[in-house]
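Final report, Chapter 2: Outcomes

The project's central promise was a pipeline that accepts a single protein chain and returns its three-dimensional structure in a standardized token representation, suitable for archiving and comparison. That pipeline is now operational. To close this chapter, we reproduce one record exactly as it appears in the project archive, with the input sequence first and the structure output second.
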Amino acid sequence: MQSEILRHFSKQLHAWCHDRITQKPSPFCQVELHPDLLGTDDRQAQSVVLWVNRESCLAGALVLLPPNHEEEIFPEATATATALGLDMFYTWGRYEISAWSSEYDPPEKIWEYDISLEERSSAAFFQKALNRLIDQIEKNFFEQQSQEPLVNHLYLANLLHLTYLDLLPSFQSGLQEINADRDGQLTTREVQNLLLRTLLLPPALACDNLLSLPSSPEKLESSLVSDLERLPDDLRDGFSSRLGLTIPPGCRRRFNHYVRRIRQLAPHLPDILAQTTQLLLERWAEALGGFRGPDSDAETNYVLVNCADYDLGLPVDIEIAPAGILAARALIFDLAGPDRRTAPKRYKTPFSLSERIDGRLIYGVLDDDHPPSATELKNFKAALRFSWPNRRLKMTGKTPLWGWQLLHLCGLVGHDCRLELGLPSNWLRQPFGAAILSTLQDKIHLREIEVESSGRVLCKFQTDSDDADAIVSYSNETRRPVPSEPQWSFGRRLL
């Protein structure tokens, strides 16, 4: 009941704040209720943010409504203030309205306004109290307006995050319109990856002092393409894409604003951009088609497939991931300094890989289940003629994308290879699953299937042959041989 009351009260405060800043001169131009921010997990208190310039992530004040005592929300209040580049926050409690400096631990009270017993149930008072609060907020703002926001990795991550959320709808519709004559629409995952890659490019350029500012938003695209060519080879390859760099017309003004803000923050970027990029990947990885990589194993050389998060010390020879994840990983790797390992070869799709794979562990997840378009199907079959020479593969257009990718990767494996790939849990019960296993039987062998709580199965293959039975293991650590039910019988030839 208390939380419901606070939600209604926060909406009323939001409305009153909006009326106040639009009816009277104010340094604030926008009010936002409980914005979606990174690095502020388990937020319990309702919040209202007064923005000086939201597109530049310039917040003027943060007001929180604690469910009980102010002290109980200090950790989330401090984290939220940090995410907004603020060094203070305000609380509207039961008995008083307070301002707190988050530069101290615990935060130190620097201003308060007591709410009398008679005033607590008066709607007119609440509006009067809000005006008093905004007067104080504006006073504090003008006293400190010469100060820059507190720039840290969390602040930068939220600048990118809010820009991403703002741009995604128009970016998606704009790209679909530009690529209308393309066979098959861009998937949501492809659009999200292209947007992340586009947003990461300006800070990557600014880190090396390569970011130039165009004279108008219309020239932004060509300016970024020109700047991209000046990046180091490994980093430039991470940002390349078969679709090229495209900023739809409806996004150019907002994106131009973002680029100029990144240019202002350039001196801070070398120290915080790697951590920022890692935080963005943690938040967006699943939507982008990325997953947790393997634990560090210095004795195994890896081919990673769709791994968004892994240790930089991992010996990775080849990295395959969607455009946004690959750009992010390339940027993190580039910022790691001169003592890092040799950069892996990077590919946006398994079909870009055309070399034999010997003595490596192919690790990752294949789960893109959209059916291929006619053009994609033609390209897939051409690629399989390379990876499976002298084989006539009987695959249909109903086979999802991940099935074609699995076949291509397995066709490239040579001696002493292992594969540990997360696949959709029902693949062995689908008709195309039988066709895939029938194709693989002469080359690689299914050794273990781990049923994961995520709804996937981790399938472990290897190229060497022996007479051991395959094992099915479950998340509760139960293990049993592959059963002999009809839906599994086609796979027993591999055991």
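Archive annotation: Residues 483-495 have pLDDT under 50 and may be disordered.
This record, like all others produced under the grant, will remain available to the consortium after the project formally closes.
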